[in-house]
Each structure stands twice: as structure tokens, then as C-alpha cells.
Amino acid sequence: MTVTTTSQQRAATADTPARHATASRDTPAHDTGSRDDPGLSVWPASTTRLPHDDLAVGGVPLTELAERFGTPAYVLDEAEVRERCRGYLRAFPDADVIYAAKAFLCRAMAHWVREEGLGLDVCSAGELQLAVTTGFPPERIVLHGNAKSPEDLRAALRLGVGRIVIDSTSEIARLAAAVPAGARQKVLVRVVPGIAAGGHAKIRTGTDDQKFGLSLADGSAQHAITRVLGQPRLELVGLHCHLGSQITTVKPFLSAVRRLVGLLARVHEQHGVTLPQLDIGGGHGVAYRPGEDTLDVAALGAKVRAELAGSCAAAGLPVPRLTVEPGRAIAGPAGVALYRVLSVKRTGEHTFVAVDGGMSDNPRPALYGVRYAPRLVGRRSAAAPAPVTVVGRHCEAGDVLAADARLPGDVRPGDLLGVPVAGAYHLSMASGYNLVGRPPVVAVSGGHARILVRRESLADIQERDIGL
Questions:
Q1: Closest Cα to residue 275, out of 283, 285, 265, 284?
Q2: What are the two backbone dihedrals, phi and then psi, of residue 5, each rounded to the nearest 5 degrees?
Q3: Whole-angstrom distance, CA of residue 86 vs CA of residue 301
Q4: Taking the model in full, what pTM does it have?
Q5: Is 395 part of the annotated catalytic residue set?
């Protein structure tokens, strides 16, 4: 197997989109016991084993995808995305399920989510306009953000988003002044309930020591609610909270429901207003490596709905319409990242396996210490697994993709590695570091593969650099 060169990678995406969009193959014969392989437990459900230790996702061999589209590349299983959307609708009947676009957004993703009946949560004018120009109904969109720019707010009002989440008191007057005369904008107030939850300190947002929302403990949330109710151009329709990310237990969400229902009761008592909506955010955890915990969405839905009904009954309130905002839990497990090994370096007790991507296409290990489980694809090896550190090609010692991976002891340049659970916070957080260009996104479904987002080329980068 040869290493895919930079020129080969450019050629793989330089053809017209139609050339890739029409290519397909029959679903290959596979090992029906592939789901018994513990290493595949975090891969998309469509993953099957092929001869020579190749894998197919969505009916398309990964080796074929790497040859056709080059590496690094993101592979996204459309059927997995759709089934995860449906799983949330089953778990939360009579609720609004809103996909958090920050996890991953492209036109096709917005289209899939809309077809499956979900709403959309956006955090910028860019995300909003991409969704609306794709045909996403703006009334099913929620705008978030702790520091929304004037352009964000103007775009939201111009395009008619369903709800805007108020994140600070300074935003109240600014938004009210921007609403056209005679119109009213539906808003939620983001409440910090004082609950610590999440997989890392940098992704915990339910406590008072971070930048999001308005504190329940110090009265900031109550003060903001009073101010919003005093604005005739704003219509307060409910409360919002988001506890953090990678939460794998139900208990923090139940605590949040109880505290927010308590605030709903105080609003009713003080202002005579019954708020009809309660948004408990997302942050639902997934497993990145076999054996890790994941949040049971069905259990979450059942227990949250029961807690909400019980708390409202105790407070003498009608049950508000519930909203949840999954992002990672829909997109993450549907994605696989593909890399070519460029070098293998053994230094003392350490073995470094360097690939043709890195922190520019996946900064999460450097940011949060996330651990992945890369797998050798497309070559059968009899060598025993050995501990290695999979590193990227960038000029940073912290450019590490998998610090404690196990790969065959004979791993070598030219090998193809697949990294599962790569559908969320990869492309959306990708950077231009070292000007290597961001990878493409390839959708697979029923034996077909097509480009959703093409590879960023050197020409793309140069076209933006207009000064001298």
C-alpha cells in the first residue's frame, strides 16, 4: 500500500462534484459477527468487516473511500444520523428536539435533521444563514450565544427565528431595540442552575464560574426575567439551561428540572405569568472508546418527563412543553476520521505513529484530553498489539490524536487508520494551522458515497490572502 501524496489528495477532490456524487457500489459481503467485535462497539451500526481487515461503513469500504477522496477525510454515515434523530423523537414524544448545529453543520446535515422532524440550534449568523438558505424553516430555529454580535441579532430578526436565548442583561435592551415596531420576538432566558456536570472542567456550563447564562443563586436570572417582561417587543416564552457536555448520567438533568420548575413557580407567583416552555439543553455523553459510559437517551427521556410532571404537579403549574438540544449524541458516533500513517518513530520506550492530519482537524485531545481508539484498516497483521502514541503533523508537541492507543506492532508508513466517533466538533473546530487545509466530509449510505464538503485546497487559502 502506498502513501497518498498531497497531489493525489488534491486530485481526489478536484473533479466535478457530480463525478463523486454518482459513484456507488453494491453493499459488500461482510462478516455478520462484526458487531461482536468489542473494538467496533463505538463505530456506526452499519460497520461491517471485510476481507484483509478492511471495514465498510454505510456499505462502502474505508480503503476505497481513502483512495477516492484522499486523507485525512471525515466519513459520515447518513443512516446513523437519521436513526439517532429518530431515537430522540421516540425518547421525547410531545417535546421539541433541537439539533445543536455547533457539533457539526453542513447543508446536507441541515437537510437530514429537517426531514427527520428536528429543530435547529445555531450560535451565529453564519450557521443561521446556511441553514435557512438550505431550506430549514426559521421558525424551528433557536439562536444561542453568550455574546451575540449585532449581525447575529439582525440576521435572526430578519430571517424570523423562532426563539432567541437571552444570555445576559445587556442583551435585553439591545435586542428589544432591534425588533421592528409592531413585532414581538419570542425569547428564553438562560438560567445557570448551579449544577456541576460534564466530562471536563472546560465543558461544564451549569455553574456560576463560567461565561454562560444568568445565575439562579444570586438573583440575576430573576432580575433578567423581570426586565424581559417589561419589554413590549419581547415575548418571554420560557426558561433555558445547559449543564455542560459529555454528561453520562440522568441525575444532573433531574436536578435541573426541579430547580427550573421552582423558578417557574416564582415567576408565576411574582408576575402572574405562566411560562409555556422549558429547554434543558443537551450535553448528552457518548463513548469514544469501547467500554466507556454513554448516556441512555431512552432512560433520560422517561425520567425527565416524569420528573417534570411531578415537579409541576407539586408546584400547581401546568406542564410546560419540553425542549432538548442534542448535538454530539447525534453527529459524533456517525462519523469516522481516516488518516494515512506517514512515519513511525521509536524513541526509548515510546512509539510515535505520525499521521497526515492532527490538531488542525481534531483539536479536542489538545483542548480536553479526549481519548480515541484508532484502528488499523485494510491490512491484516499478525503482530501483537502494542501501545503507541498517534500524533499529528503539526508543529506542536501537544499535537496528539491518541495518547494511549494500541495498534499492531508492525504498523508502518502507508497504513490506513480509522478513528471512530469523529462526527462532532472535528470539522466545526478545525483550523488553518500550518495551512494544510481542512479535510472533506464524505457521506455514505446504502453502498453510495458522495462529497458533502470538499477538501480545502491551497488555492482556497491563497484566494483569501489578498494583501502584500
A1: 265
A2: -85, 170
A3: 13
A4: 0.89
A5: yes
CA distance 226 to 221: 9
Contact 409, 383 (CB under 8 A): yes
The 3-class secondary structure across the chain, one letter per residue, is CCCCCHHHHHHHHHCCHHHHHCCECCCCCCECCHHHCHHHCCCCCCCEECHHHCEEECCEEHHHHHHHHCCCEEEEEHHHHHHHHHHHHHHCCCCEEEEECCCCCCHHHHHHHHHCCCEEEECCHHHHHHHHHCCCCHHHEEECCCCCCHHHHHHHHHHCCCEEEECCHHHHHHHHHHCCCCCCEEEEEEEECCCCCCCCHHHECCCCCCCCCEECCCCHHHHHHHHHHCCCCEEEEEEECCCECCECCCHHHHHHHHHHHHHHHHHHHHHCCCCCEEECCCCECCCCCCCCCCCCHHHHHHHHHHHHHHHHHHHCCCCCEEEECCCHHHHHHHEEEEEEEEEEEEECCEEEEEECCCCCCCCHHHHHCCCCCCEEECCCCCCCEEEEEEECCCCCCCCEEEEEEEEECCCCCCCEEEEECCCCCCHHHCCCHHHCCCCCEEEEECCEEEEEECCCCHHHHHHHCCCC
Q: In Å, what is the CA distance from 173 to each residue of 48, 80, 238? A: 55, 42, 18
Distance from chain centroid for Cα 77: 14
Rounded to whole angstroms, the maximal C-alpha distance in the chain is 73
Q: Which amino acid is at 32?
A: T
pLDDT by residue for the chain (468 residues), tens only, comes to 333 333 333 333 333 333 333 333 333 344 444 557 888 999 999 999 999 999 999 999 999 999 999 999 999 999 999 999 999 999 999 999 999 999 999 999 999 999 999 999 999 999 999 999 999 999 999 999 988 999 999 999 999 999 999 999 999 999 999 999 999 999 999 999 877 555 445 444 444 565 677 988 888 999 999 999 999 999 999 999 999 888 999 999 999 999 999 999 999 999 999 999 999 999 999 999 999 999 999 999 999 999 999 999 999 999 999 999 999 999 999 999 999 999 999 988 899 999 999 999 999 998 888 899 999 999 999 999 999 999 999 999 899 999 989 999 999 999 999 999 999 999 999 999 999 999 999 999 999 999 999 999 999 999 999 988
Identify the active-site residue in 85, 106, 241, 395.
395
